[in-house]
Amino acid sequence: MPEPFDALATDLARFQAAHVPGYARLCHARGLDARAFSRAGDAPAVPTDAFKLSRVAAFAEGEARATFRTSGTTLGARGTHEMRDPTTYDEAALAFGRWALASDLEPGHATPVLVLAPSPDGAPDSSLSHMLGLFVDRFGEPASARGQSYFVEGDVLDVASLDERVARALLEDLPVMLLGTSFAFVHLLDALGEAPFRLPSGSRVMQTGGFKGRSREVEASALRRDLAAAFDVSERRIVGEYGMTELSSQFYEGTLRSPSAPIGVYVEPPWARVVPVDPETLMPVATGEVGIARIEDLMNVDSAFAVLAADRVRRVPGGFELLGRAPGAPPRGCSIAIDEMLAS
Q1: With contact defined as beta carbons under 8 Å apart, do 302 and 57 qualify?
Q2: Which CATH architecture has domain 88-265?
Q3: What pTM value is reported for the model?
């Protein structure tokens, strides 16, 4: 980037303090003057739950060209992330998605991109469906030769059509990019049973999301092992993705990029940082210690450049580990920040 991360981050924080009322209140409650910020860590972070309780946007209502909403019902509301211009989101998602999933594919390669999630038309307010739609259009086959790309409609997983698409790719010796949520992959494995479902050589799998609100969970390493066995691919070709509606950037395991990248370690793009912080003081913890995730995302231009999630994370060599959600009520530091944003 032409400017240092901290310079861009503090510019964004000053802009948002001037144009996002809730963020201005948060800074005021902390006794902070955004004009004095000199590094990213000086700026307070906005808890993800604030997106459920108030509008976090630097522009007038009605100007959004894209509006994404969370799927959960925590606090009786869905989090909403409005974007005045989704171009920044799109270009960032494509750039780092290509880095993590498609760097070894030739431009214009006829790669079938198959999605175990609703299409963008079927879920227009899902940021995940929006991103996967970008991958179908930009990483996959030309539209004229594409065939079916999405295999979830509502709550129905179309296993028969997916089987047909994979069988065709095997005949044509085309590696596929199979993208989906962890929950959809669990249902696919259940449907397959002991039946073989080998993917073509060179295929790769991206799985994302947890099991929030679901009655059944599968431990991450067990799911990876089962997917590798079912698809006849190396576990290193199953790439985890971490993202959320309140962000404009995503994080990936680097296992497809590098044979030495450890499984379970997520990598940031150069325009984002994940900082583990103490759940009460919100101050950074030492490398190797567990904290909740403060995520600094320079692509969040018109909302909150720094977001505070309840996910437990730990910095390790090469990136960060995800250790699950903080149990119980929102961490105390998050609750205080929400109160400060909503205070009149």
Answers
A1: yes
A2: 3-Layer(aba) Sandwich (3.40)
A3: 0.93
